[in-house]
Structures are given as structure tokens and as C-alpha cells.
């Protein structure tokens, strides 16, 4: 399986349309619950962002409760991405996510990151930081990526971590 960023972005855009999302921050928790997916918070190992699986027909998302709330939002969107994009892969199999940590290339594998993780990160990025709203927030004058305060402000508006916003602005997710 290879990552399909275009498919992941389009799937997130469909969800935004479906829920008539007109403003930020995107209510990811409400979206998940409306889709009849159980959302649970539990303390997990620091390097794990969350997990997704379907068991006996029940879709479940687990989030690392020890992470910052903004990071938890990205994790929730990432796990929703697995349910939307990878239903077959996570059926009766617990998928454990490293979230944005998956962006760091694995030095052992020439393949780099897991394609499932790339797709889920792309989905989460588009769901929480849709291009349209991002362009509106940045405005016609653009944004200085070197200006930490501006990037922090932007991240706060979207209720995502500064790291996630930087990856988004840098075109990495
Ligand atoms: Zn994942």
C-alpha cells in the first residue's frame, strides 16, 4: 500500500461538507460522535498518540489523555482518518498511531513512514486546518514562517499544536 494524499484530503473535505463546517475550530469530537464512533481517552505511552479499531461492528477511537488538548484534537482527527480511509485494515485489528511522530523517517527502513500514518496525518491536517480557512486567516499579506508569535496565534485559532501548524504550513502534512 502506498500513501494517497489526494484521496485523504478529499475524504476530509467530504466530512467538512457533510457537517457544514463554516468556521474554525473544527468540532472534531462532535463529528466523531455523530459518526457513531466511540471516543475514549486513556493514558498511553508518551510516543503514542492514539489508536483506532473496529471490534464486533463497533468503531472505537482511543486518545492519549496525557497529551495537550490541542494535540489530542489532531490525534482524534488522525484516528477518524483511519476509520474513514482504512476501514478494512483496522477491522478486528488494533491500529496504534504515533501521529506526527510518524513524519520522522525511520532510519532502518528506506520506505520511511507507514503509508497508513501518512494518509491519516494528511486527513487530520485537512480536517482541522482546511486550506480555505487557512488562507482566510493568513490574509492577503501572507505569513512570516520565521515569526513564532504569528504561527502560535494561527495554531491557537485552529486549536492545533504549533508543531502541527508548522508541518501544515511547510506542506509536510
Ligand atoms: Zn495512525
Number of folding domains? 1
Major sheet: order of its strands?
Answer: 1-3-2-4
Helix content: 40-55%
Percent of sequence in beta strands? 5-15%
CATH architecture assignment name: Orthogonal Bundle
> In terms of per-residue confidence, which ranges show pLDDT below 50 for 5 or more consecutive residues?
107-112
Q: What ligands can be seen in this structure?
A: zinc ion
At the fold tier of CATH, the topology name is: Arc Repressor Mutant, subunit A
Taking all residues together, what is the mean pLDDT? Answer: 92
Q: Helical stretch count?
A: 7
Shape: globular
Specify the structural class. Answer: alpha+beta
Global Rg: 15 Å
The tally of beta strands, per DSSP, is: 4
Which CATH class?
Mainly Alpha
Pfam family, one: Peptidase_M78
Organism: Ruegeria spongiae
InterPro entries: IrrE_HExxH, Rad_response_metalloprotease
Protein name: ImmA/IrrE family metallo-endopeptidase
